[in-house]
Amino acid sequence: MQGLIIKSTGSWYSVLTNDGQRTECRIKGIFRTKGITTTNPLAVGDVVDFEMEPDQDTGVIVNLHPRKNYIIRKSINLSKQGQIIAANLDQALLVVTLASPRTSLGFIDRFLVTAEAYSIPAKLVFNKLDLFSDEGLEVLADYKSIYENIGYPCYEVSALEGTNINQVKELLKGKVTLFSGHSGVGKSSLINALLPDLDLRTHQVSDWSDKGMHTTTFAEMFELPEGGFIIDTPGIRELGVIDIEKQELSHFFPEMRDRMHQCRFHNCRHINEPGCAVLKALENGEIELSRYESYLSIYHGNDTRA
Ligand SMILES: Nc1nc2c(ncn2[C@@H]2O[C@H](COP(=O)(O)OP(=O)(O)OP(=O)(O)O)[C@@H](O)[C@H]2O)c(=O)[nH]1
Ligand SMILES: [Zn+2]
């Protein structure tokens, strides 16, 4: 039988089949992901084949279907190993806010670079719209235009008051969407506003602990009433890590990627080279200073994630 992993606790996986049934499954055999060593062989979003165990209501996963993408984070202790957070994502949504705690542009840009590197379409949701004065709304419009001009769709919502939640619903329909955002932006509030059954999240957690299974910070997938899934990543503020070569970095800034073939030198770093099309666009105001500063910051390896 084929199914979708919607939850994992490390040794058990909840597998959802097309008929809406969930089966708790274990793994049989070895699942390796080419080119990387992982602490977990399977993750939410994985499509697998499983067989029922004789005389049991549990199953055994016997095959993993190829992943179209996955996001991974480095293990804290084992530097060479990674933990796959989620697989087969259609899009990644970053929940941000200009109200407290304000999301920095640097944080947004790092997220977008990572999403580009993973080839996962990224979108921004500006939350806490209800807190803005007219002046604040102008600033919000400026921020949005920075990102919309580069091609990242932006939404403004209030999870608290339900404003524009339908736009987000529309965006999620039929898709597998990863939700990210730093603590306090209202990610949980937004997810709760999207899921009609408010008890769902807490209910599921207690379900698992009743069985005495240990729950760490594995991602969870929630089915939306309109079709599609939300993946929540508790404790993971970012999209995971990816090693980006310095020479590659500008490829992950769409506005730089669009112009770099016009640079005089094919190996232009866009820092101080003569005939640099990126620097020219920056001078003309076609490239935002904040975006370019993020480029430099990442290029030089400065960690300004807050
Ligand atoms: N005014 C206003 N407050 C909001 C809104 N959304 C969330 N909040 C508040 O912001 C705070 C943080 O919201 P959470 O949903 O817990 O934020 P989170 O991003 O999930 O944060 P963590 O749980 O720490 O990961 C809470 O006090 C919410 O009530 C909003 O649209 N407007
Ligand atoms: Zn250049």
Automatic annotation (TrEMBL):
EC number: 3.6.1.-
Top-level taxonomic group: Bacteria
Any one biological process term the GO annotation gives: ribosomal small subunit biogenesis
Cofactor entry: Zn(2+)
InterPro entries cross-referenced by the UniProt entry: G_CP_dom (IPR030378), NA-bd_OB-fold (IPR012340), P-loop_NTPase (IPR027417), Ribosome_biogen_GTPase_RsgA (IPR004881), RsgA_GTPase_dom (IPR010914), RsgA_N (IPR031944)
One of the record's GO molecular function terms: rRNA binding
Cofactor, how bound (note): Binds 1 zinc ion per subunit.
Chief subcellular location: cytoplasm
Binding site for GTP: 127-130, 181-189
Gene3D superfamilies: Nucleic acid-binding proteins, P-loop containing nucleotide triphosphate hydrolases, Probable gtpase engc, domain 3
Pfam families referenced in this protein's UniProt entry, alphabetically: RsgA_GTPase (PF03193), RsgA_N (PF16745)
Family recorded in the similarity comment: Belongs to the TRAFAC class YlqF/YawG GTPase family. RsgA subfamily.
The protein, known as: Small ribosomal subunit biogenesis GTPase RsgA
Organism: Mucilaginibacter gotjawali
Gene name for this UniProt entry: rsgA
